Amino acid sequence: MANKIKVVLVGGSGYAGFEVVRWLLRHPFAELVGIYGPAKELGPMDQFYPLLSKQVRLSQELFDPQAIAASGAELAMLCVPHKVAMSYVPALRKLGLRVIDWSADYRLHDRDVYQEWYCPHEDAEGLAEAVYGLPEFFAERIRTAGLVANPGCYPTCSVLPLAPILQAGLIASEGIIVNAVSGVSGAGRTPSLKFHFPERNENFEPYGVGKHRHMPEIEQTLGDIVGHGVQVLFQPHLCPMDRGMLCSIYARPKGDVTAEQLVEVLQAAYADKPFVRVRSDVLPATKYTTYTNFCDVWATVAKGQVILFGALDNLIKGASGQAIQNMNLMFGFEETAGLY
Q1: Domain spanning 154-314: CATH 3.30.360.10
Q2: Whole-number Å distance between alpha carbons of 25 and 36
């Protein structure tokens, strides 16, 4: 234990928080020393999730920066909603902790853009400091970061198939359509009529038409990678499954582009990236990435259009697994530590 970094989790009662608890339990170089949350969600972790009985003896306690500092923690993982995160981060950074935030509060560089899509932003200093935590493209910046913005699940699943193809100049940077499907766990654990079993079972529906908050994040991230503006129409759908995500992406080719070219570009981009698999044996599917930190990608050309696919587990590569991948980079561990 002496050689392990000490980690605290803020927000352990939700689905993604539960997943990171399980991954940290078996991490060879990290020790979970505390779990914190709001006043309405306190108590032993095995009361929230009976599966954790005899595995986790920690209770979720009221968020207290001084108690976190006294624990000797070096890293705080924040699995809380937007707006809540920005109220916690300044105190944690002032105490010297490095932070990985899973909310949207530090993902968008431009404060005005954030406020257009979310709410007033109250931590300009943190926003300026934050590094976007997509390891496949920003690993070097993540290694030295004090504050990492863990990407959204939809942006991760959209950007990983698209970015290398855009970088290679094989598709137009406007008119891109991302048709995305997610399991219900992406909506969180708070009960509501919309997510009641009779409403969700055998029901497949679009939502957030033309106004989903992940759209500016996708465009920003692709623009940062390729160095110019990218226009994306992002349309999500809710699917009656617990977990999983599939993105079907359509783009206009620039010139005569072949499926072989597309696959070669993806293979070259991800040859040394441990958690992106360029599929040739099967098409990406949610079943093949469930409970893993992999994102599977594939590409082809049909009827004069480029078609790309991405699939991942929204709670792992789309949340908790990616956070641990970022933690590994930040503390100099093997990127794959605790994730296989």
Answers
A1: yes
A2: 17
Q: Where are the domains of the chain?
A: 5-129, 154-314
Distance CA(151)–CA(133), nearest Å, equals 6
In the CATH scheme, what architecture does the domain 5-129 have? 3-Layer(aba) Sandwich (3.40)
Indicate if 154-314 has the same CATH topology as 5-129: no
Return the residue matching tokens 């219900």: 184
Whether 40 and 5 have beta carbons less than 8 Å apart is answered as no
Residue numbers annotated as active site: 153
Q: Take residue 45 and report the two structure tokens written for it.
A: 């972790």
- Crossing angle for the helix pair 214-226 and 153-167, to the nearest 10 degrees: 30
Provide the residue-wise pLDDT of the chain in tens; the chain has 340 residues.
458 999 999 998 888 999 999 999 999 999 999 999 988 889 999 989 888 888 988 999 999 999 999 999 999 999 999 999 999 999 999 999 999 999 999 999 999 999 999 999 999 999 999 999 999 999 999 999 999 999 999 999 999 999 999 999 999 999 999 999 999 887 776 767 777 788 888 888 999 998 899 999 999 999 999 999 999 999 999 999 999 999 999 999 999 999 999 999 999 999 999 999 999 889 999 999 999 999 999 999 999 999 999 999 999 999 999 999 999 999 999 999 999 8
pTM of the model: 0.95
